[in-house]
Structures are given as structure tokens and as C-alpha cells.
Design brief:
This protein is mainly α. Among the domains are: 1-38; 109-247. It is built from 27 helices and no strands. The chain has helices spanning 2-42, 57-86, 96-126, 131-155, 161-185, 191-212, 215-225, 228-234, 239-260, 263-284, 288-309, 317-339, 344-362, 366-387, 394-412, 415-435, 444-466, 481-506, 513-526, 531-534, 538-553, 562-586, 590-599, 603-627, 633-656, 661-685, 688-717. The two termini are 67 Å apart.
Amino acid sequence: MEKETDKRIERLEVEVRALRLELDNLKGIKSLEKKEMIQAKDQPSQKPRKEVEAENHLVKLNKAASEKQKKSILNEQNQKTDQQINLPNPQKQRSFEEVILWLLPKVFMVILVLGVLWGLKVISDFGLLSNELKIALAYCLSVGLIIIGLIMDLKKPESSQIFTIVLYGGAFIIGILTTAAGAILYDVLGLYFALLLALIFIAYGIAICYVKKNQVLSIFVIFTSLLLPYLLEYMDFNGMIILLYVVIVYSFMQFIVIKHVQSIAMYISYFFSLIAVQIIWSLNDENAGMYVLGILLLNGILLLVWWHLYKPFSKWRAIHEGLLFSMNGLTILMVNIISDKIALPLLMLIVIYGIFALFANKRSASRVVDLAGTLSLLSIVNFIMVLNTFDDFEIVLLTLSTFLGLMAGLKINAKLMKIIYSFLFTFIVLVHLLVNDIKPFWTIENLNYLLIFFYLIVLFLYMKQRYKVAESEDGKVNVNFSLDIFPIFLVTYFFIYVYKFDISYLSYDNHAYLTALVLAVVMLVSLFVSESIIGRGLRYILIFAFFLTYINLIPTHFVEGIDIWLNLFVRIIYAFIVIAILADIYMKGYLYRTWISKLKLDVDGLLTVGILGALVLLYSLLSQLQFDSIVNYFLVVTGKTLLLFITASLSLWMSTTGVLRKVKSMGYCILAVAIIKLIFSDLDSLNLIVRALLFIVIGGIGLFLSNKLLTNKNKKES
């Protein structure tokens, strides 16, 4: 023990010496650094001498570790500063009080305008003032609002910005409405003088929009300015002049839109301009080509302005793309209505959208190219519709138009387009299913059924390629409409068409046996297809539909003609499918390994229910054979008894090879029912020969089964 302690003391002394040497080295390094600093201060022009010191390996490691830590700290600080620089400046959100203060002037101005209108109505009803005086007072109010706005702008140009915009806008609206009332209602103003006043007010409105840079004001001005065409129509002006006025006002407003980047005003002004052209055309109902040309000019201006304001990397680009598509879809509709089956305007639209697509393609705007290409396809569809090559071809083209719009929305991921065109496409498909039939077969309606199915397949394949399965934080897979729900709609539409075809061409008694047969095949195939292809819900929906059809096949059907054989064939197929699935589960085959085992179901109970289901369906098959007078009565009775004994024997045999208590209990119950039927029913209904054969067969089966059960019992005991 003493020797061991002496050795330990010696080791400790050696380690202490080594530590002292390291400390001395560190002190020497620090003193040298101080000397070098002093020399550098005294002699700044001289270069410091390099001294090579023999350092301990621990000192080198400490220095290297400290340098790495300093570098990592500096890198983290640089990354933080870069992130702070790259972060966008947070936009100040308006408080509730600020929103209220922003809205109040506009609300009160609307109240004031309504009050003026109702006041003029009251004065007119009571006859207090003459019409001339009422119109003069209204103009005085309009001019007064302008003067008040100017005074407030001069005194408080910043704080009164919102209020003065409301004053200028209110003066504009009152002036336009007063001019219209004075010319049309009261017949106080001369028509040309009223037109001059209206043009002055419109010029004033455009001017204040340019100066004030307010988008809401621009919307009010364009809306009110487009009321003037009704005055022009009242004055019996030529339709070309009215149309020219609409195009000029719209064009001037687009300069303001571009100058102050007012996207909403661009869409609203275009929409109301289209409506104005449509109303003017409906009032005149002549020279449709002129109005179509006006719409084409408006559309060309819209495309130019939209491209000027379009920002490819903006977070709002999908909304703007969707609005452009909707506005141009409305344009195609208007041209189609006004042109009155003239193909040339639609051909011009095809050229316009084609040029726009090429223009966008040169600037690598692929999303805009998709939009313009889809609009060209829509124009081509309407062009074919106008040619009217086939009767009722509008049904196909209308469905195709909504499908193309939906595909464009999915392609550019525009939520507004996806919502609108999904609703339209669904509505058109539902109406087609409810209204149109597929008989006779060679019709446009039946062709549209097949095309809709093709569209649904294309949508499914595209969405499957585009969208992936997402997992939640818990690791569970979220339900996805495109991958899980949409396949159910696709298959539902397919079976609706198959059912219509079955009822129209094959079935005589409204028993859709072909549909039931196709359902069985599709359900069986779905069991072997991966859920990543067909979704997680389709398989269970098909199993549920298979179960309902299975129940419908149990009662005896009164059928005639080919339905007799279809009925029997479908029953056999359904029973065969159930037996095949039961065999796979019992033998632990493909379905059991890939699907059933993962569901953690009670295999014993599942086999019991399946065996009972197969027994009931086969029993009903024998009853149907007897009902249709295909098989002799004695054979049916014998077959039913044999079926019961065979089912009981199979159930008991299956229970001997595994722990299947429920199957075993069911086997004994079926065996008891079979014996009771044999003794109390079959003895009276069968003749001697059939009775002898039946008892021989059943006796042999019973002896074999008893021997099997006893052998299995002895093995367990031993």
C-alpha cells in the first residue's frame, strides 16, 4: 500500500511541475506582447520582429479554440445584422379609431348627397320653389363644396387631405346629378348646354383625380362619368358618338391609373365601361360591329395598362391575374352576345390574345403566357360556337370554357380563379347530369358526358402531380382535397354515367346489374392499388357501396329477359369476391399483409361476418334459381342443405388450423341449423332417391369432419 501511495505522489508532483511550466510560458508570452506593443508605439515605422517561441501543445490548443470562438461569434453577429437589413420595414396597421375617422367623412358625404336629393324631391312635391331655383341651388351647393375644399387645402393641406377629397367628390356627384335632372327630369336646361356642363364637370372630376391621387375618388368619378351616355341617348345622339365618349373617358382615366398605380380603379372602370357599351347597344340594337370594335379597343387598352402595372414577383400577382382573366372572360361573353353569330370579332380577339401571349413570352412571363393562351383557347371555343357546325354544340363549348378557366387558375395558383371556376364547372356538370340524357348514344349530350369524364381525369392527374401529401406536427398525414377527396368525386361521376348507360340500354326492370358488376370489379382492383395513387378514402367508399349493393342482391328479384342471367351472374361474382377476400385473409395473403394487418381489426370476427355474408348470398342465389324456374325444386332444396353443411364444415375446419373461436362457434350453429332443416324440412319435401343421396353425402362429410376435429383435439392434448 505504501509503495502505491508513493507512486501516486510522484505522479502528482510531475503534473504540478508541468502546470507550472505552462503558466511560466503563458506569462512569458504576455510579457513579450507588452514589450512589442511598447516598441511599436515608440517606433511606428519599424516592423516588429518575429520571435519563435517553443510553446506547449496545450497552449496552442487553447489559442486555436479561442480564435474559433471569436470567428463564430463574429459570423453570428454578421448574419443577424444582414437579416435585420433584409427584413422589410413593418407597415403600420391602422387602429380601429383611425379606420372610423377615415370612413366617417365618406359616410356623411353620402348622407349629404341623399339629403340633397330628397330635399329637392320634397320641394318639388310641395311646390315651394320653381324648378329653375332648385337646379340653381344644387349648383350653388356643388360650387360651395369645391370652394370649401380649396380653402381647407390652402390652410391645412396635410391634415385635411381626406376631408377635401370627400368634398371634391361630393361636388362632382352633385354637379353631374343636377345636370342630368335639369335636362331630363325638369326640362330646365337646354340639352346642349347641359351636355357642356356635364363635360365641364367630368373634366373637373378627371383633374381632381389626377391631383389628389385617391383611388376611391377615381372610382367614383369613372362611375359617375359613365352616367352621361344616358343623357346623350336621351338627346338622340348617334351611337358612334356615345361609344367614342365612353372610350375617351376610359382612356383618360387610364393615364391616372398608370400615374398613381390604381389597380382597383383599372378593373372597376373597365367593368363599368363594358356595361355602358352593352346598355347603349341594347338601346340602339343596330350596327353591332361598331360596338364590338369599341369593346375590342377597351380590351386592348386594358391589356396595355395591366401589363404596365403588373409586377411578376408581387404577392398579389395571383389576384391580379385572376381578375384579368375574369375581365377578359366577360369581354368574350359581351362580344359573343353583341356580335350576333358573327365570327370576325372573335377571330380578332384570338389575334389580340395571341399577340399578348407572344409579348409576354419574350419577357419570360410564363404565368401571363398561360393566361393569354387560355383566353385564346376560350376565344377559339366561342369562334367554333358561332360557326354553329353542330346542333347543341354550345353545351360542349361551355363546359370546355369553364374547364380551361379552372386549369388556368390551378396553373398560376390564383385563388379567386380557382374558386370561381370550380363553382362554375361543378354547377355545369350537375346541371348536365340532371337535365341531359345519354339516349340516343350518338348525340352531343352523350359526347359531353364523356368529355367531362376526360376533364376530371386530367384535373386529377394534374393535381396529383402538383400537390403532395402534407404531414402535421404529430406525424399524421393531413386530409388533402386533391389527393383524397377529388378521386371520390371522379369515381362517383363515372358510376353515375355507367348507371345511366345501364338503365338506358341494358336493364329492363331498373335493376342496374351492369353497374353492380363494374362496382365489384373496381372495388376489387382498388384493394390492390396503393393509396398514394387513389387516395385514402376511395377504397372505403367503394367497399361501402359494394356492401349496399350486396344487401340489395339478397332479396329475390322479379326480372325478365337478359336481366335474369345478369342477376345470376352478378350474384355469383359478388359471392366469389367475398370468398376470395376471406381466403386471402385466412391464408395471410397479399391483402392481409399490405392492408388488413395494418388496420388492427379482429380477424376472427371479420372472417365470421364474411362467411355468413357469403352463405346468405349463395342461399339467395339458390332461391333466385327456383324463382326463375331454372333449376328443379328438389335440387334447390338439396343444394341449400348441402350449402349449410359445407359452410359449417369449412368453418369448423378453419377453426382447427388457428385460434378462431368465433368462426368455430358459428360453424356449430350453422351445423345445428343444417341438421334441423334436414330432419324437419327435407324429409317431407324430398323423394326417396334424393333423400338417400343427400343423407349419404352429408353423412360422409360429417364423418370426415368429426375425424378431423377429434384428431386435432388429440394433438392438442398430447
